Amino acid sequence: MADTLLLPVVAAAILDGEGRCLVQRRPVDKEHGGLWEFPGGKVEPGESPEAALAREIAEELQVTIDAPVPLAFASEARGPRHLLLLLYRVERWTGTPRPLAGSILRWCRPAELPGLAMPPADRPLADALIAGSGKNAAHG
């Protein structure tokens, strides 16, 4: 598949002190519009995934993250593009999340994620978060 374009994307499972994670609803005019997803975005050329995650979270939520921990990944073919979605667990962050990208934010327990309509690539990430939800979480 020499013609396949790899599209690396990062996302954060931002956890609060009560073990809830932050999800955002995609704007209706975008691909997968109206579905819930973990905040994040595309990795720019020459950018590390962690730097991209910090930039995207700051741009979308006006939050500063610290020490993201790799949690899971998903791989999905989309025609000539191939999405590689990297999910990080973020327990340390500062600021109050605000929906700067025009989306709606929601805090939910990992066990609630299966009840949310999500893009297919986010499902394995939600499953990984559910499997690891017994860990303590706090933010700063």
From TrEMBL:
Keyword Metal-binding: yes
Major enzyme class: hydrolase
Reactions this protein catalyses: 8-oxo-dGTP + H2O = 8-oxo-dGMP + diphosphate + H(+); 8-oxo-GTP + H2O = 8-oxo-GMP + diphosphate + H(+)
InterPro entries for the chain: MutT-like, Nudix_hydrolase, NUDIX_hydrolase-like_dom_sf, NUDIX_hydrolase_dom
Domain Nudix hydrolase stretches: 5-131
Pfam families in the cross-refs: NUDIX
Record-listed E.C. numbers: 3.6.1.55
GO terms assigned for molecular function: 8-oxo-7,8-dihydrodeoxyguanosine triphosphate pyrophosphatase activity; 8-oxo-7,8-dihydroguanosine triphosphate pyrophosphatase activity; 8-oxo-dGDP phosphatase activity; 8-oxo-GDP phosphatase activity; metal ion binding
Entry keywords, A to Z: DNA damage, DNA repair, DNA replication, Hydrolase, Magnesium, Metal-binding, Mutator protein
Gene3D superfamilies documented for this protein: Nucleoside Triphosphate Pyrophosphohydrolase
Co-factor(s): Mg(2+)
GO BP term (any one): DNA replication
Similarity field: Belongs to the Nudix hydrolase family.
Name by which UniProt lists this protein: 8-oxo-dGTP diphosphatase
Source species of the chain: Sphingomonas aracearum
